[in-house]
Amino acid sequence: MKGKSKKQKVITEQDLRQVLIKKALGYDATEVVEEYVGNEEGDVKLTKKKVTIKNVPPDITALKLLLDENEQQVSQMSDEELESEKIRLLKLLKQIQND
């Protein structure tokens, strides 16, 4: 029987939602490639380091999951909750347009 790792990270539903949002919107990822060379004495020396930024495009499946989730939440909201959500989203859109 294998023992559990002492350094297990607890992943919350909020963490998963943030990852899903990131994937749905797309993001830039930094990739570092390093090459090392060893000599006769056994010393290892860094000879090349290449850093590239790759664009990960938006994922339509992640976006669909988010939209489906929002649709379920919206259908359960009261009229007052819908109105306050509308105001919140309009403020958010204005803020995004100004940035």
Summary, kept brief:
The chain is α+β, with helices and mostly antiparallel strands and 99 residues long. Helix content is 49%, strand content 25%.
SSE map:
Blueprint: H1 13-25, E1 27-38, E2 44-56, H2 60-75, H3 79-98
Antiparallel strand pairs: 1-2
Helix pairs in contact: 1-2
Give a written overview of the molecule.
- A hairpin with a 5-residue loop joins strand 1 and strand 2.
- This protein is α+β, with helices and mostly antiparallel strands.
- The chain contains 3 helices and 2 strands, in the order αββαα.
- How many DSSP E strands? 2
How would you spell out the order of helices and strands? HEEHH
Q: How do the strands line up in the largest sheet?
A: 1-2
* Largest sheet: number of strands, sense, barrel closure: 2 strands, antiparallel
Mean pLDDT: 84
Structural class determined from secondary elements = alpha+beta
Strand content is 25-35%
Give the % helix. 40-55%
CA-based gyration radius: 23 Å
Poorly predicted runs of 5 or more residues: none
Helical run tally? 3
Overall geometric form: elongated
Distance between the termini: 54 Å
Summarize this structure as a short list of keywords or feature phrases.
3 helices, 49% helix, 99 residues, alpha+beta, 25% strand
